[in-house]
Amino acid sequence: MDRPSSYFLNGLVFTLIFGLLAVFLIHSFDSIGQDIGRHLRLGEIIWQIKEVPKTNLFSYTEPDFPFINHHWLSEVIFFGVYSIAGFTGLILLKIFVVLAVFLLLFFIAIPLEVRPASGAWSADDPSKRGVLPLTGWPIVISFILSILIFISRTEVRPEIFSFAILAFFLFALFREKYQGSTFFKIQGRTLNLLWFLPVVQLLWVNLHIYFFIGPVLFLFFFIDQVIIQKSKAIIKKLLLVGVLIGGVTLVNPAGIQGALLPVNILKEYGYSIVENQTLSFLSGFFGFNLSVFIFKWSVAVLVVSFLLTIKNFKKRIFEIMISALFIYLGFKMFRNLPLYALVSFPVLAVFLTDIFPKPGFGRNLPGKTWFTRSCLVGIIIFLVFMIFFVASNSYYKKEGHSKIFGFSVPNSLERAVNFVKENNIKGPIFNNFDTGGYLIWSLPEEKVFVDNRPEAYSVDFFKKVYKPMQESQEKWAEFSEKYGINFVFFAYTDATPWGETFLENIVKNPDWRIIYINEIAIVLVKNSKENKEIISNFVISEANVIEKTIETIKNSNMDKLNLASTLSLLFYKISWREAAIHFADEAIKLDPKAPRPYLYKGLAHAYYTDKESQKLADENIRKAVDLGLKDSKYY
Prior knowledge:
By secondary structure, this protein is mainly alpha-helical. Helices cover 59% and strands 5% of the residues. Strand 5 and strand 6 form a beta hairpin. Helix 5 runs parallel beside helix 7 (213-228). The two termini are 54 Å apart. The relative contact order is 0.10.
């Protein structure tokens, strides 16, 4: 391949890879109903009082329960950005940070200097370190795999700062190992990147709970250098840097308790959340997941590539140890997949380069120039296809995601809260775990019942109060009376067994009346004298639910197909079957090839025992399966 053509194709490939990452990051603010509201409120409070609260603060059930805020600095940053540029600003912040993360990792792989002409590259001899000579195809392969794993978590969360600092640690440690890590010169003295690690660790311990990774990474690096390094001066320097990293970890509002939080937090965790579950556990609930599938393939490629080059074991101690750690973390918790994605990018590139050691694209593959060019063109076509596939929302539809490409902010919870405010509905409120964070921000005049911080509540609260009052009508009557609950604000997308049981029971309970339903939330008030007027004006029953719901969803910015499907599922769950069939039919009109509306319609018809209804149930469920719904329980 001639040099200008090679440079053009190589540059185009990497430009498209970064373009693919960017389109995956530009999507609707899907986490609006999760943590971000609480982060904004806490950021505002910390900014105003110049102190980090040390108790639950927002709940009337356990307001004084001790709480260590391990991401307070992230919350202040989020509040500052939101105050200036709103939710769009937060999305742009995420995009900028993540692109910078991958660019930094890319610079580990792409040589920034010319390798010394004298002598071969060597990890053992500091005088022959030169540049880590990673080659074209290993970088491309590891980069693409990393992105496809990373996209499992692309929301605006404090962890984006962990990604940034993790990338800096990797950049500094790989540079130190293979280049001596010189950053720049000041008055003739070189400034080494390692001395920046304690500084970023100080930030990390106040930004996000993943801060424990910093000391662990440096420990692995120290072990690696003790094995391959002969210079006592370098070992002493590393010891000093390591002591500084450990020392600054104590500099947080909770001191040693804050430093030990990653070890202790799950010991008093009374509520299981999806992101903390193992991959094997989640596979039984959610079926195929692209990021999980690519993660497993990436692990296989990484392990095989290492085994093929096991003769380099001594030179790759650091890479082996961090690979083992992040493979374990990835399988242990779904939320850790992006960590593996970031670490595997440079490590897999190193291992693959051990197999294909010659630089450039063409010399790494068998055959002639046309074969190399064909492979590059094939990758370019794949990347262009994926960019348009994601930007057109086809990817999200196929994967069943509610995300859409762009900067939109779902308004379903906002509209539900506005209804509460406009009609002056007063608490105490009962809300479910999923909505607490949003209500803390959007309805500050009311203390919440619970929010999505399991560590901010006692184990007994979840075990003896929150779950039982949803599972048992008797417990609901007892605790709703104890707390004087006046209205319920419930995200019916709650898929927990207790959440679904509560929903089925509460809509049939004559002591509670539904007054609002939209595509995510349902609001009920106590059937009392004080609420007589609002019940008279807004009560929703099975007879008028279709008409009332059409009115409340007319200003929704949710994708119309997802909206209709979600409502159909809700009404099926609470046994309002005519409404379930109506909204299933609406979804089918929008997309006759979407399987789930046929499923919900079929299940609704299955409740009727007449022959015609049973026939319709059979036809619709079969249609759903034929269109790709492979859940075995429906066969």
